[in-house]
Design a protein that fits this description.
The complex is a heterodimer. By secondary structure, chain A is mainly beta. Chain A folds into two domains: 2-42, no CATH class; 50-215, Beta Barrel (Porin). Chain A is built from three helices and nine strands. In chain A, strands 1-2-3-4-5-6-7-9 form an eight-stranded antiparallel barrel. Chain A is elongated and about 85 Å long. Chain B folds into two domains: 22-123, Immunoglobulins (Immunoglobulin-like, Sandwich); 130-217, Immunoglobulin-like (Sandwich), CATH 2.60.40. By secondary structure, chain B is mainly β. The model of chain B has no long low-confidence stretch (mean pLDDT 90). Chain B has a five-stranded mixed beta sheet with strand order 2-10-9-6-7, with no helix packed on it. Chain B has a four-stranded antiparallel beta sheet with strand order 11-12-15-14, with no helix packed on it. Chain B has a three-stranded antiparallel beta sheet with strand order 1-3-8, with no helix packed on it. The interface between A and B is large, with 39 and 35 residues.
Chain lengths: 217, 219
């Protein structure tokens, strides 16, 4: 093998079109102005890439009175490569639950449970990015699906549902904990409505979520 | 977002919208017994699923329930008009029906209702031949007083039906339907309002028997 190595190297170096030969040619005569155009054709701009990340969070919300309880969230984030990946589109599905019990005179105890499922596309803008920490601002508006359940020790249980809307604005702090994994903490303020007859109270309010975000690509 | 994801989101939203629903209508599950003798006031137990109209306020953490429930048999209101715990209503059906099947309707305050067509059957009864009313002394307007009505005839001693109270036109009496007789005798408190100074009380049953009291002073 070693016997053929040197002649092969020489052949590659002096062959027309080889990198070395081209370099020498450039040294001999300056390339015409069109050369830069030809170079762009040879190296077209990279196609737009979309990075996908999935995040999951758990926390709590408070919207006044008994409208308080746990919340969960799952978000798919799509980040196009333009503008250095500063803007992203989130598709988010959440769950919130509020529950309280009340004594009904002469009958017994009533328990009211409100499940809320916002399905919200959101715009995410990277506000700050350092090696370890990032900060995003998020705004979204979408659908709010509500389930209201009544149960008691004196009457048949019922479940009703309604569809409404929800909008929110929030900030998410990200802390890198591995190459493709980040810890997230989000605080948001929401406003929404899904009218279930005879159910009073705001559908959303202040919410905090602690979670993780994983980069798929 | 890819077109596929957009389509999925739209489908999910439409599906959720289509699944929106409000309280269900009430349902009558059983009536025990489901029949009575026309001349015997009969206690029955009606079981129903009644989703009561309930207002919940998450801002206050409070709830209120509208317990008004109307139960009608053959168009006649029975019971006390209120919800009974567990949807188990203990009712006494008065003797105001002609023999035959009767519809049973349960209605809530917000208008939701259910009707069990022919859910209650009334069979032929054994009525007394008539009634007598013990002498009524002078009374005062709108002041309750007690009257005693006695069934007469062959089946009098076993009569446990109801009679209607009436007064001549222009006056009113309450209640208009008596309690059931006990072994052929009814003792009940009534109230009369009349523009006249003299009045008389009339009792009648659904079989067509009628009786009048003496004319008594009403001050």
């Amino acid at each position: 093998m070693r016997r053929f190595a040197l002649p092969l190297l020489v052949l590659l170096v002096v062959a027309p079109g080889s990198a070395f030969a081209a370099k020498k040619k450039v040294r001999r005569e300056r390339p015409p102005p069109v050369a830069s155009t030809e170079r762009r054709v040879e190296n077209p701009p990279a196609p737009m890439e979309i990075r996908t990340r999935l995040s999951f969070g758990a926390g709590a919300f408070f919207a006044g009175g008994a409208n308080v309880g746990p919340s969960l969230g799952a978000t798919a984030t799509f980040t196009p490569s333009f503008a250095s990946g500063r803007f992203s589109l989130d598709l988010e599905l959440d769950w919130r639950m509020a529950r309280f019990s009340s004594d009904i005179a002469g009958l017994g105890t009533l328990t009211s449970t409100l499940h809320q499922f916002p399905i919200v596309p959101a715009l995410r803008v990277r506000v700050l990015e350092t090696k370890a920490v990032g900060l995003d601002a998020r705004v979204g508006v979408g659908a709010l699906f509500v389930l209201h359940a009544l149960s008691s020790d004196y009457a048949v249980a019922t479940t009703r549902s309604a569809l409404g809307w929800e909008a929110f604005a929030g900030a998410q702090l990200r802390q890198a904990i591995a190459e493709a994994l980040e810890l997230t903490f989000e605080v948001r303020v929401g406003l929404g409505e899904a009218a279930v007859p005879f159910v009073l109270g705001r559908a959303s309010g202040v919410q905090g979520l602690l979670g993780v975000r994983y980069a798929l690509q | 977002m890819s077109p596929l994801r957009s389509v999925l989101l739209v489908i999910a939203t439409v599906t959720l919208a289509a699944s929106c629903r409000d309280w269900p209508d009430p349902v009558i599950r059983s009536i025990t017994p489901s029949q009575m003798v026309a001349s015997e006031a009969t206690p029955i137990e009606l079981r129903a699923e009644v989703p009561l109209q309930t207002t919940v306020d998450y801002a206050e953490g409070s709830a209120s329930v509208d317990t008004a429930v109307s139960i009608r048999i053959g168009g006649v209101e029975v019971g006390h008009g209120q919800y009974a715990k567990g949807g188990v209503f203990q009712l006494v059906v008065p003797t105001v029906f002609q023999p035959g099947p009767q519809d049973v309707t349960l209605e809530l305050a917000d208008g939701r209702s259910t009707t069990l067509a022919g859910g209650f059957t009334v069979s032929e009864g054994q009525w007394p031949d008539g009634y007598t009313i013990d002498v009524i002394p002078p009374q005062r307007q709108l002041e309750p007083f007690t009257v005693t009505v006695r069934a007469a005839g062959e089946h009098a001693a076993s009569f446990h039906g109801n009679v209607r109270f009436e007064v001549p036109p222009g006056a009113t009496v309450g209640p208009q339907l008596s309690e059931p007789f006990v072994d052929g005798v009814l003792t009940q408190t009534i109230t009369i309002r009349s523009p006249r100074n003299e009045e008389l009380l009339i009792v009648s049953d659904v079989a067509g028997h009628r009786a009048s009291s003496n004319t008594f002073d009403l001050r």
